[in-house]
Design a protein that fits this description.
two-stranded parallel sheet, 15% strand, elongated, five-stranded mixed β-sheet, single chain, 5 helices
């Protein structure tokens, strides 16, 4: 009987130890998951801080590189004086003509409908765009987003740019209903 009692106590003790180890493992896994999520947020934030530090040409090349990463072909940075609203051109993986206008503004600025109206007037007529895209390092105003929705323009604001930078392919943004997605709230210069 003493041996059975010792075996039972050993089994209970082993069970308590295993349960404690499992719980500790779960806590450690949860802590690691939270740490990785925080590190991803910090990395994304640092990369967006880098975007705001770029000059116009660097921002255009950065956008062109994201297009290349996503399988776009014949990608060229063509921005500059007399570009008629095209800063990056190329072809989407399915062959459609891509024309991108880049707006690298401070994070507390917004892009209004006037910029979109100008781009809309040249993207298809001058550049034969099948997919006109406007990428901004800030947010778009509500009227700008409504205009884009009515005219089939793809808008990638700073929030979506963070997703694009983190690996979401460009093609995922082309069919978004921009009038219902994102935000038009200005960011303050000191927002983290």
């Amino acid at each position: 009987m003493g041996t059975v009692l010792l075996v039972a106590l050993a089994v209970v003790a082993a069970g308590v130890v295993v349960t404690g180890l499992v719980r500790a493992g779960r806590r450690e896994a949860q802590a690691e998951k939270a740490r990785l999520a925080e590190e991803a947020r910090r990395r994304a934030r640092r990369s967006l801080d880098t975007v705001w530090a770029m000059n116009d040409r660097q921002f255009e090349e950065y956008v062109a590189e994201l297009c290349r990463r996503d399988g776009c072909t014949d990608v060229k940075r063509v921005g500059g004086a007399g570009d008629l609203g095209a800063d990056v051109t190329g072809r989407l993986p399915d062959g459609r003509r891509l024309v991108i206008q880049c707006k690298r503004y401070a994070k507390h600025r917004t892009v209004g409908s006037r910029d979109l109206q100008t781009f809309n007037g040249t993207a298809r007529a001058e550049h034969q765009a099948d997919a006109p895209v406007l990428v901004a390092s800030c947010v778009f105003t509500k009227p700008a987003r409504a205009f884009a929705a009515r005219h089939g323009l793809c808008l990638i604001d700073i929030n979506l740019l963070g997703f694009w930078n983190s690996g979401t392919p460009l093609t995922a943004f082309l069919d978004l209903d921009i009038s219902r997605s994102g935000t038009n709230r200005k960011l303050h210069p000191d927002d983290d």
